[in-house]
Amino acid sequence: MTIGGDMDETRKGDGAGLDPARLLLPAVLLIEDDRNLGAMLGEMLGIDYRMTWARTLGEARNALAGAAFDALIVDRRLPDGDGLSLIRELRGGGVSTPALVLTALAEVDDIVNGLDSGANDYLTKPFHIVELEARLRALLRGFRAQAASVMIGDWLLKPGVNGIEDPDGHMVSLTETETRLLATLAASPEHVFGREELLANVFSAGSDIGAVDVYVSYVRAKTTRAIIDTVRGRGYRIGNPQE
Q1: Any residues with CB less than 8 A from the CB of 141 and at least 6 apart, and which?
Q2: In what order do the strands lie in the sheet with 50-54?
Q3: pLDDT (tens digit, 0 to 9) for every residue of the chain, 243 residues total?
Q4: b/e for 140-172, b at 16 or more Cβ within 10 A?
Q5: For residue 217, how many other CB atoms are within 10 A of its CB?
Q6: What single DSSP character describes residue 204?
Q7: Strands 155-158 and 163-165, how do they pair?
């Protein structure tokens, strides 16, 4: 993993050196300072997920700035602070990536505090790996169902049918790649996605970096230029088109 150094794979743009089939697996950021627990979880969860391991809040912030994740597993007691502070930051910035909190703090008040801070689920230590795996699957299922349709300004993206409704309710057909591009951008509205990041998260293995700009232009041509913002020198983020 890119953060922590004890795992074999590296994300490197979320694709280099990986079996192309693994690019379809959900990406999970594990934030855990215990070296033994982190290594064990990375190895066991790495069968079904693309894992990145951060041991501190600082490493986690760096990982989140450079990639998009489908779920977070967050320890509370970290060397540089409480994992809940990161979740509060993300929620305050409009990031809705589901987060599962791991902690030894098992009092009811601690659990309530975690959930009120924006965590989606809470698992106390010690725990069985099968329970963690089940909770993670449930978290991802619920998040995907919730994100089945998403408003982008006054346009309604419907990933399930590869289409987007314009402000008048007319359906515009999208290709699967165009849908993934918009859905990825919309999932993290405050995040600026670099071209390499979009190439790894949206496009099939072997695609050229130029495909990112081409598909951005395709989506704009079908909808409106304002649906995707260009951030000069950095990349793209979702826009806020309004009639």
Answers
A1: none
A2: 50-54, 27-31, 71-75, 99-103, 121-124
A3: 333 333 433 333 344 455 666 766 888 999 999 999 999 999 999 999 989 999 999 999 999 887 778 899 999 999 999 999 999 988 887 777 889 998 887 677 777 777 887 888 888 888 899 999 999 998 887 666 555 678 899 998 988 667 898 998 888 988 889 988 999 999 899 999 999 999 988 887 778 999 999 999 999 999 999 999 999 999 999 999 985
A4: beebeeeeeebebbebbbbbeeebbbbeeeeee
A5: 12
A6: P
A7: antiparallel
> Is 143 in contact with 159 (CB distance < 8 Å)?
no
What's the CA angle centered on 48, arms 163 and 11, to 5 degrees? 80
Phi, psi of 207 (to 5 degrees): -70, 150
Helix (H) or strand (E) holding 230: strand 228-231
Q: Tell me the residue length of the chain.
A: 243
Element (H, E) at 53: strand 50-54
Q: Which of 115, 111, 110 is nearest to 99 (CA)?
A: 115
Q: What is the value of pTM for the model shown? A: 0.56
Q: In what side-by-side order are the strands of the sheet with 163-165?
A: 150-152, 155-158, 163-165, 171-173
d(CA 23, CA 100) in angstroms, rounded, equals 22
Pairing of strands 71-75, 27-31: parallel
At how many degrees (to 10) do helices 210-222 and 176-187 cross?
90
Instruction: Name the residue with tokens 């760096």.
Output: 62
Three-state DSSP at 145 gives helix
